[in-house]
Automatic annotation (TrEMBL), chain A:
Keywords associated with the record: Cell membrane, Membrane, Transmembrane, Transmembrane helix, Transport
Top-level taxon of origin: Bacteria
Organism, scientific name: Methylobacterium aquaticum
Pfam families: BPD_transp_1, BPD_transp_1_N
Domain spans labelled ABC transmembrane type-1: 111-327
Compartments (UniProt record): Cell membrane
TM stretches of this protein: 9-27, 110-134, 146-171, 200-220, 278-297, 303-327
Entry similarity comment: Belongs to the binding-protein-dependent transport system permease family.
GO terms under cellular component: plasma membrane
Stated name of the protein: ABC transporter permease
Amino acid sequence: MIRYLARRFITMAVTLLIISAVVFVIIKLPPGDFLTNQIAELRSQGEAASVAKAQFLMQQYGLDRPVWEQYLRWVGLWPNPEGAFNGLIQGNWGWSFEYDRPVREVVGDALWLTLVVNLAVVIFVHLVSIPIAIYSATRQYSIGDYVATFIGYIGLATPSFLLALVMLFYANRWFEVSIGGLYDSAYSGLPWTWEKVRSLLAHLVVPTLVIGLGGTAAMIRRMRANLLDELGKQYVVTARAKGLPPTRALLKYPFRMSLNPFIADIGNLLPHLVSGSVLVSLVLSLPTVGPILLAALKSQDQFLAGFILMFVAMLTVIGMLISDLLLAWLDPRIRLGGDGR
Amino acid sequence: MTVRFQDLFRSAAAAEPSPLCGGGRPADAGRERGSATPIQGAPLGMVATSPEAASPLPAPSGGHPPPQRAEGWARVAVLSVLLPLLVSPALAESASDRLPKQPLVVDSTAQGRQIGKPGGDIVTLVSKARDIRYISTYSYTRLVGYDETLALKADILEKFENDGDRIYTFTLREGHRWSDGQPFTAEDIRYWWEDVALNKELSPSGPPEFMMVDGQPPRFEVIDPLHVRFTWDKPNPRFLPELASPRDPFIYRPAHYLKRFHARYTPKAEIEPLVKQAKVKGWAALHNRLDAMFEQTNPDLPTLQPWRVTNTAPAARFVFVRNPYYHRVDSNGQQLPYIDKVNMDVSAGGLLAAKANAGEADLLFRGLNMEDIPILREGERAKGYRTHLWPTARGSELALYPNLTVTDPVWRNLNRDLRYRRALSLAIDRRTLNNALLFGLGTEGNDTVVEKSPLYKPEYRTLYAGYDPAQASRLLDEIGLTQRNGAGIRLLPDGRELEIVVETDGESSMLTDGLTLISEFWREVGVKLFVKPQDRTVLRNRAYSGASVMVAAQGLDLAMPTAEMSPDELAPVHQDTYAWPKWGQYVETRGKEGEPCDIPEAKALIDLNARWMATADNAEQAAIWGEMLKNRAENQWVIGTVSGALQPVVAKTRLRNVPDTQTYSWKPTALIGIYRMDQFFWGPNPKEASR
């Protein structure tokens, strides 16, 4: 087990390193960078003081160095001008040029709000889709099954950004929820009071519904298919024949078995918590990571964009590990390592 | 089981944003100089809140109130109508103590305005936290500023004397104070000139360009604490218009505050810890950061503006409270501004119209567009606001800039051919464009000054701007572009197709829609047009380096000039005019980069611009403007199409003194600046609670 874990951690490190290289190279592909663009513009406006500052930042962050050196510095494998190693590995997330603040501060505020939104979505999706899936699997081809399927497909087919705008409008018209954001702007900068939390909850409804709706349909279909696979198996028939109550016969064995694919899915779920709602966040003006990432990519704010992408990649890798370990624990038939133990 | 790599990459890919989610909306930001300069926007919570850096001299009033809860403010707002003294402890001093001996008395009734009642907050929206900087454009308080008739008037100054555009003598108001209660004197102007503008570390490239005449700075004298004088050897007619420009150059700084961070006045040992704390390189960087007169990122920095910022980024709402020492009063002697507090909420650009529709803004104009008018009108009655439609003063909503300094030799020859530019202009059906883009409400013609300008003549707009495809075809044939391919497209001399790639920043649908129409018109004369939208920074870099053949953007910014405003936008002296980036570079860098202007007609513009700079005579300046505008129309340096878009200005019905119809522009009206936002006030209407 320890050997397995050690091997997994080494692969994870290598994977992350490769991803970081790919991410950095892609971010650097467009010509120029944030500061050269800025300097060109400032110079044309004769704003000398700002140019001086931009040039200072350029040196500080080595933007005048070759790309490979910038990359190594960012990761923390190359010394900065002061001769110290200070990069991702050492826990320095870098500097955001656009916001003129450390990346840690820029992302920090947004990160937990992102988690709140997406956690709400994940809970919503599971709460809604699992009962519906069980219902439609046990009553396959009934009218209820068709209705649930139909509604699910509509949810899957509606473009979420459009739905977001429509719902935003009516949430405002009917329930007086202010447009956009995660709470009424009157509360911004104030400590968390009950009113503020209530405002947050009211504003969570639309994003949760919109982001969740697409996911719900997919979840219902998968769960239903998994459960149908199990329901026809002999052990279910046996359990029923021996007189186990129907609910117990359903939940105790086939339901548990049908959860396997979802555990395996945790690896995707974790990064989804951060990146799952970019489009809707943009439309709804949510203060989450998605819009920050998009803006950073557009303005070539390389360390900010790089950090967010790396963070998502890391969550993926960790999620994969967790799901593999959980699977092995949940289902003894699955073995780790595959080295013929 | 092993890690599934394909899954891994799938989720990594999912993290990339979809190209569908276009970010910002077409704000007029792009055309405003200095709008994209986040580097200066230096939010500085750390230093600003450290005990040492807190306002060095405690305000006599005992400071400003901390931000209160929203409902609290609503209550205060209601109370303040009755008891204006409650709003801020600073107001405990009687108003006359806080005013200069000679306040600026605003004759509201003469301007067709009402005398208002002080009190209340207003909410407005910005699409980026950085945009809070435009408060100084909205509130428009200048040493010298334009009034509604575009005449230059003393504002912060009590008066100014201008001797032949060479010797400027400023008289300050006696007893005028900064927002922290410290006196505003000649020392504050001297500090800016001698310790900021002339300081090599703070301003490495010297004083701002408008202060230099032929590379020579003015002589500066402090006559007494209330009088200063700038003297140039040759006229500097740009000086006062620059002070009145939408982006205030702030030639005065709060010396008493900033000296604490200036190496000349404060020993190194005292500054050093602050520099460390702010994680900047030296005292100069720290000073520049705290000296955020325009950026509004330092709440401790005293100001002379009607409202001062109270919080720093990150925030979703920026709160500006009134400056208790503001120098303007109404004719009843009430101190302005009427509005106690301006809240700027940050919201995604795409939601501005929707939020206005939901009544979430008391006043909103920047970021709204003509295409938002239907949704804005829709919510008017229910949410108690009005959508005023102000005509925009801009040379052209969609202008084409053939790049005269493009590197490709074939295109360069063609772009420099006057017949070619005229042909392209004549081939555009502007009436159809007007109907499609501006509901037929616009004005068709060249990119030139608008009718409201005293310098306007009809020929500037109509010359070579009719629709005559036959004549256009003849001109193109005359150039020698007679060969055509199977699709009927003309061929360039080297055999390539005459396909003009028109680059644009792709942020405004009006531009791309208009270009799609123009591509239809041009096809009729055998010219192909390909629209290439891209990011604005990429666009600029391509244009500046000579890679782009033609750029589509908005036309003249200063489209409602008077003779005393600088005509430099018409001459090839700035690289940010897409028609001649390299000529502009050459002038701007004094010959180090770019290339010299080598077309006689364009050189004439440079000479005219220089002549304008050298004269103090208004009649001569007007004549020069006329010549330059004529030159512009004849040579079609820039191909204009339609102008006169309407700018929606959303204001709550109860918010009074908001003009019904006025001209909207960046320059010279400073957006709504010259219409004096400090006179806006909440009219009585008990049914609708103040927000």
